[in-house]
Amino acid sequence: MVILFVAVNCATKKQFISKPTKSLVNPDSELLEVNAVAYHINDSITTSYLEIKNENLIYKRPDTTFAFYADLKISYKLLAEPNSKKIIDSSSYYLIDRANETVEIKSIISKFSLKAKNNANYYLDIQVYDLNKKIKYNKGLNIYKKNNFTEQNFLITHNNSISFKTNFLKDETVVVKFSNPSITQITVNCFFKEFGPALPPFSTKVPDEFKYKPDSIFKMDLSTNQFQLTMPRYGFLHITPNPNFTEGLTLYTYDKTFPGVSNSDEMINCTRYLMSKAEFDSCKASTDKKAAIDNFWITIAGSKERARELLKKYYGRVKEANKYYTSYTQGWKTDRGMIFIIFGTPTNIYKSSKTEIWVYGPENSPNSTRFVFNKTPNPFSDNDYILERSQFFKDPYYTAVDYWREGRVYINNGK
After folding, report:
1. 16, 33, 158, 336 - which has most CB atoms within 10 Å?
2. C-alpha span between 264 and 296 (Å, rounded)
3. Tens digits of per-residue pLDDT, 352-366?
4. Domains in the chain and their CATH numbers?
């Protein structure tokens, strides 16, 4: 069964076109932001909630009235694994959003039910087709139903709405719902560790091992099918319904500007990939950090105008990295985040259930660079990938960094 939260009668003749205001943070992005969460209702049904940001949708007006419409087709297939030909469940439906002459940036929400039995894992392949723009977007989601303790057995709500994120502000209150009647107590493990940026792709240094050792622990007895938590000042909370398992739900405290960059100190931290140690230490020790990071960008750009362009591009990539690669730490600190910030969008990406391969440059060319990221088990996140490091990455990495330090945005040129 498909339930639409936003729907109107379908329009036919389309003559006039309107778009929402472009993002000020990343105005060059034409990607459609699609978010999805899964919530297990029982041992055979899972509900998938879908959020579509309308920022890059095309709205058309069918006649001379004031109404504009976005026209979408949503298709989904539940597979045994990514790229599998075995389809467990599938369907499609249409989603129409009505707007006035001025289209406001907002989220379009819908949901649909999946026939997904317990004791198995699946892959949900979602396609969002903008019928006005005639462009198709894909969204993939792993569905875990091998036990009753994964995060998909919980549904996060914030301000009485479904939350498609797991990061919140300090002192914000979230409500977590669950449908499994056997959950009568939860353990909340509190972690306050800060993580550093990813090591260079050619580094031979072994990163510090993160041990599952909470800084504090508390338990909650549950008499209803939901509970409420207040977010800490920083760090994250890991909620487990069974103390014998580490699987569960993780909630993070980030600044209000996340996934964007909040202040000069964070700007300095995010720019570590371009800085020498002496430059980084000097900026961190400065009494006027804003002036320090501004001077760094003006120095490498050669002028304030070019520095502004570099800032917009670089921190735009930081924001995108935080959106898509955040795991138990901010996305810009991860291996994929580092490569994305420095090199930009890959020419091609190949994904499997355990691996992502990013290719920069023409396929099968000796000048191409291939980064292999392997998914690693992580009790806090389903989005943790580790790069296979190699000394062969030293030259392309420094080439890309030098582009930035010469005042140019590095974009893949097949190098």
Report:
1. 336
2. 12
3. 878 999 999 988 888
4. 1-146 (2.60.40.10), 153-254 (2.60.40), 264-405 (no CATH)
